[in-house]
Amino acid sequence: MNFKKKATLTLFSIAITASSIGQSVSTPKNPVLSDEDFKFLETLTETIIDSSRIYPGQKVADQMGNNNTRIVLVKPGGRGSYPAFWIRDYAMSLESGFITKEEQRNMLMLTASTQADRTWITKNGSMIPLGAIADHIRMDDSLPIYFPGTYSFEEQGTPVFGMTPPYGDQFFFVHMAHYYVGTTTDLSILDKEINGLRLIDRLEIAFNVPPSRLDNHIVTTTDHFRGIDFGFRDVMTITGDLCYPSILKFKAALELSELFKKRNNQEKAEKYRFIAAKIKEAIPLLFMDSRGMLKASNGKGSQADVWSTALAIYYNILSNEETEKTSSFLSQTYENGYLSYKGNIRHILTTDDFSDSTAWEFSLAKKNTYQNGAYWGTPTGWVCYAIAKTNFKLAQKLAKEFIDDLRENDFRKGLEYGAPYECFHPSGHKQNPLYMTTVSCPLAAFRAIEKP
Hints:
Elements: H1 3-11, H2 18-21, H3 35-52, E1 53-54, E2 73-74, E3 85-86, H4 87-93, H5 101-113, E4 120-121, E5 127-128, E6 136-137, E7 144-145, H6 168-184, E8 193-194, E9 197-198, H7 199-207, E10 220-221, E11 240-241, H8 243-262, H9 266-287, H10 306-314, H11 320-336, E12 340-341, E13 344-345, E14 375-376, H12 380-388, H13 392-408, E15 423-424, E16 430-431, H14 437-448
Antiparallel strand pairs: 1-2, 3-6, 4-5, 6-7, 8-9, 10-11, 12-13, 14-15, 15-16
């Protein structure tokens, strides 16, 4: 490594917060929730994750057959929704602390075994590159489905859902391995061969699958060869340089750096730490607007993105000055009613909708439904974390609203109840009850919040 790079690494501090490592499951000293509410959320999260388990031989939907993988799978939620193993939702829920070591190892190995071993083109014209990680994996025959929108191996990969698989799952694969090693100290798993290739090599290959800018490592895409930036908005068209998957890549780079450091490979540890530094430097320069909000991209769908903005603060990407400005703005939008509903968060502020007919510029979903304007619990913890940087009491208020809604609509009250829902809207729209990341992600974030 040349002197310029070494100097950059020395001067450009990369702080790994407790939230980015995901190892701590202790209650914070200054909790954003009361002890009673925190315990309620912990218990509910554990219950939801348990209801999301698919045991060997179990059937959760007639059309999907039995779980023939011989291992416990964790799907995105309870009841009959999403009857498969979805890498993204599972990886995002690890920091809840309720996935056993054996379950982690088994699902990590399954994911590695279905990594694309060659580049090929689907019958519908989309490309699956070497090293791609599945969007979800069927439980009856363990076939990888690399694209959203289908459970069919043969019919997957239509241009509607991208010409290449979503970009986030590759980075979530890295997180799965990093979290397992961090919680078990089992470094030997990195040398385990899966179909003739070591896990550590598979992690590096996956990391380099999403197309990126040569100068700053930011994930990028084009109109003609588009990939989904993040699976929680796979019905949107977002192009150009992409903020959310670049945030995930930042985190994955730090995690790879730490894994290689544990393996005493200082050259690669520095390589990935440098990549993280370049991404951290580039994100606010490329995406931040005058209010402190990060835009989803600089192409189509170039709108201020609440999820990216809050997650960037959660992963300590923004500077102290930027964090204070952004936190203050989010606090203001919350107080003005533009940000949340019953403690749940929109992708886009109501003041930033693209038009009267849609929140995002390009969407397959109707306005104020699903990913196009409904409210989600998944990012609530990140938003609370961001707001707490400048207004801890306001963060407590938002967190309390979130818990109060969960209590009011708790699925354990009866079949007519369904909280935690995947998303909902005051118009009456509700989608997918017993949804895992709605509680698992906020729980992990609430643990990381401390009073400034």
